[in-house]
Design a protein that fits this description.
Layout: E1 6-9, E2 31-35, H1 38-42, H2 48-67, E3 71-75, H3 85-96, E4 100-104, H4 109-119, E5 126-129, H5 138-146, H6 153-164, E6 168-169, E7 172-173, H7 206-218, H8 235-253, H9 273-277, H10 283-295, H11 301-325, H12 328-331, H13 353-365, H14 370-383, H15 388-398, H16 404-415, H17 432-438, H18 459-470, H19 472-477, H20 482-489, H21 493-508
Parallel strand pairs: 1-2, 1-4, 2-3, 4-5
Antiparallel strand pairs: 6-7
The structure holds flavin-adenine dinucleotide and iron/sulfur cluster.
C-alpha cells in the first residue's frame, strides 16, 4: 500500500463525475474510496430494491471512474469486515496515510456527524466540500430563511425562478402566473388511465445481477423483492429515462399528478428521483429538458410548471429545511404519538385496498408516487397515531430514492405533522372519501369509504373522524382546518361515543385490518 495525496471518499449518493470531491482530483496521486457497508442497509431495515439501487449504481460508477484511470478502492459487500463507513475510512487512512481526506457533504446528518467525530480522532485533515449538485447551498438557504417567520415553498420557489431565470419573462413569470397547481389535480375517468407510456425499464446486467446475489446472501430477510427490478442505475440510462419522460409523459404529468389507480404503479410521473438523489442526473439538466419540451410544443405550460416546481422548488426547499432543522426534526413529535407501525406496512398484507396496492408496489419496485406516500401511507400513519420514528424509519427503508435529507422533511413535515407545521399550514388528513375520489382503490375493498363505524367501516374514515374528535380545539383554531373540524361539532353525543368506541377497536386491531 502506498501513501497518497488525497483520499477521496465517495458515498453511495454522490455518484457524480462532476462532484466537488473530484474537482481537483489527480488520478496518479489520489485514491478514491467507495464502500458498501452493512450498517447502511441495516440502520433502517433497508428494502431489497433500495439496497440494490444503491449498490448497483455505486458499482457502475466505480467502473466509470476506473475507465477514467482513477485508482479506486472499492469495498464490496461480503468481502470485508468493515461494519460502518467510518470503519472503512479509518482503515483506508491507516493504509494510505493521505495528506487530506476529501469528500462532499453527505445526504444524512447522521453520516456527517460520524465523519466530524472521526475527524477529531485523527491528525489527517478532513475537507468536506459543499455539494454543488444542488442549486441552493445550505448557507444560501439558511440566509434566505432568516427573512421569514414561516417557511413557505412559494416564496422560495419564486426566488429560485428569478435567480435561475427559469420560465420567466423579465422579472415576471411566463404567461403571468407562478403557479398552475389548480390545473394539476385531476382524477382519472371511470375507465382509468389509458395507454400510459411505460417508464424506461432496464434489464439487469451482470453487475446488477451480482448485486442481487449479494443482497439475497447478506440481507435475505429484508423486505421487498428484486424480481421486477428494472431501474436505470447508470447516468446513460438515467438520461434516457429523463428524455422518455419529457417526450412521452410530461404533457399528461400535470393533470394527473395526484391521481391513483390499482395496479398502475408508475402513471405519468418522471421516476427519476433516485437517479437525481444519487446524482446520476443533475437538476439543472432535468429542468432544461422539461423546458425544451415546453418550448417545442411537447408539453403545455401547466404540466411543465408543475414539474419545474417539484425539482427547482420542492426538492431544493426540502433539502434546505433538512439541514436548517436537524437534529430537531428527527426528535419532533408534535402530537406525542407512540403507537407501533402496523406490521403490514412491511408486507402489504392488509384488506385495505389502498394500503395493499400502495405498499405492494413499494415493496415490489421501491416506488410510489407523491400522493400515495402523502395521502395513503402518510396520513394513515398520522391518524393511527404511529410514533414518528417508526414511520420515518419505514420511509427511509422502502423507497429507492430515500436519502434522509429528502425523506425526513417530507415525512415529519408534510405527512405526519411531527414538526408542528414548520412549512405546512395544517396537518394533512382525509377520509376514505378523498381516496375514493382520487382512485379506484375502494372498488372491491371489503370496507366502505363513507362508513365510520361497524363491520364495514373504512379504517381511514374512522380514524379521520377520530382525529377530528381528539384534536377538535386545535383544528377549530386553524382557519385552514376549521371548516373540516366544524363537522365533528355537528355530530350527536351518541354518534360521537360510537365513533370513539369503534376507533378504539380499530386501533387495537390495527395489525389485522
Ligand atoms: C411522505 C413522503 C416521503 C417522501 N420521501 C421521499 C424520499 O425519500 N426521497 C425523495 O426523493 N422524495 C421523497 N418524497 C417526495 C416525492 O414523493 C418523490 O420525490 C417522488 O414521488 C418521486 O417520484 P418521481 O421521480 O416519479 O417524481 P415526480 O412526481 O415525477 O416529480 C419530479 C421530481 O420532483 C422532485 N420532488 C417532487 N416532490 C418532491 C418533494 N416533496 N421532495 C423532494 N423532491 C421532490 C423529485 O426529485 C422528483 O423526481 C416523499 C414525499 C412524501 C409525501
Ligand atoms: S374503503 Fe377505505 S380502506 Fe378501502 S380502499 Fe377505500 S379508503 Fe382504503
Amino acid at each position: 500500500m502506498k501513501n497518497c495525496r488525497h483520499l477521496i471518499f465517495i458515498l453511495g449518493d454522490q455518484l457524480d463525475i462532476d462532484s466537488a470531491a473530484l474537482a481537483d482530483a489527480d488520478a496518479k496521486q489520489d485514491i478514491v474510496l467507495m464502500a458498501e457497508v452493512p450498517h447502511e442497509s441495516t440502520h433502517v431495515w433497508s428494502a431489497k430494491p433500495r439496497t440494490a439501487f444503491f449498490l448497483s449504481a455505486m458499482r457502475h460508477f466505480a467502473a466509470v471512474l476506473e475507465k477514467k484511470k482513477f485508482q479506486v478502492e472499492y469495498r464490496t459487500t461480503g468481502t470485508h469486515q468493515f461494519a460502518t463507513l467510518i470503519d472503512a475510512l479509518a482503515d483506508a487512512v491507516v493504509q494510505h496515510k493521505p495528506q487530506k481526506i476529501v469528500l462532499v457533504t453527505p445526504g444524512d446528518y447522521r453520516v456527517e456527524q460520524s465523519l466530524l467525530a472521526f475527524a477529531k480522532t485523527i491528525k489527517t485533515p478532513l475537507v468536506i466540500r459543499d455539494d454543488t449538485h444542488f442549486m441552493c447551498s445550505r448557507e444560501d438557504f439558511a440566509e434566505w430563511a432568516k427573512g421569514y417567520k414561516q417557511m413557505r415553498l412559494e416564496y422560495f420557489y419564486r426566488l429560485m425562478r428569478r435567480r435561475y431565470k427559469v420560465m420567466m419573462d423579465g422579472d415576471e413569470p411566463l404567461q403571468g402566473r407562478w403557479n398552475f397547481d389548480s390545473e394539476n389535480r385531476g382524477a382519472f375517468p371511470k375507465t382509468g388511465p389509458q395507454n400510459v407510456p411505460p417508464t424506461h425499464a432496464v434489464k439487469p446486467d451482470a453487475i446488477t445481477k451480482a448485486v442481487f446475489k449479494d443482497i439475497e446472501k447478506n440481507f435475505a430477510d429484508h423486505p421487498g423483492t428484486l424480481t421486477d427490478f428494472a431501474w436505470p442505475v447508470t447516468r446513460v440510462d438515467a438520461l434516457v429515462a429523463l428524455q422518455k419522460f419529457c417526450d412521452e409523459r410530461l404533457a399528461t404529468f400535470g393533470e394527473f399528478q395526484d391521481a391513483m389507480w390499482t395496479n398502475a404503479p408508475f402513471l405519468y410521473h418522471a421516476h427519476i428521483s433516485a437517479a437525481l438523489n444519487l446524482k446520476l442526473l443533475n437538476p439543472r439538466e432535468v429542468i432544461a429538458a422539461a423546458i425544451a419540451a415546453f418550448e417545442d410544443g411537447r408539453a403545455p405550460i401547466e404540466a411543465t410548471e408543475g414539474f419545474v416546481r417539484q425539482v427547482l422548488g420542492w426538492r431544493e426547499f426540502i433539502r434546505g429545511l433538512y439541514w436548517l432543522d436537524m437534529p430537531g426534526t428527527r426528535e419532533a413529535n408534535y402530537f406525542q404519538h407512540t403507537r407501533k407501525l402496523p406490521a403490514w406496512y412491511w408486507t402489504g398484507d392488509t384488506h385495505m385496498q389502498c394500503m395493499k396496492d400502495s405498499i405492494g408496489q413499494t415493496l415490489q419496485y421501491g416506488y410510489a408516487h407523491h400522493i400515495q406516500r402523502l395521502m395513503i401511507t402518510g396520513i394513515f400513519g398520522l391518524m393511527a397515531e404511529v410514533s414518528p420514528k417508526e414511520i420515518e424509519d419505514w420511509y427511509l427503508a422502502v423507497y429507492i430514492d430515500a436519502v434522509e435529507w429528502a425523506e425526513l422533511p417530507n415525512v415529519a413535515g408534510m405527512a405526519i405533522y411531527a414538526n408542528g407545521g414548520r412549512f405546512t399550514t395544517k396537518p394533512y388528513i382525509a377520509s376514505g372519501q378523498y381516496i375514493k375520489r382520487m382512485s379506484n382503490y375502494c372498488t372491491g375493498c371489503r370496507y366502505k369509504p363513507d362508513v365510520k363505524t361497524g363491520a364495514t367501516a373504512c379504517p381511514v374514515t374512522t380514524l379521520y373522524w377520530n382525529f377530528l374528535d381528539k384534536h377538535e380545539a386545535t383544528l377549530l383554531r386553524n382557519p385552514r382546518t376549521a371548516l373540516m373540524a366544524r363537522n365533528i361539532t355537528k355530530m350527536s353525543a351518541d354518534d360521537r361515543q360510537a365513533l370513539r368506541d369503534h376507533a378504539a377497536i380499530t386501533l387495537k386491531n390495527i395489525d389485522t385490518l
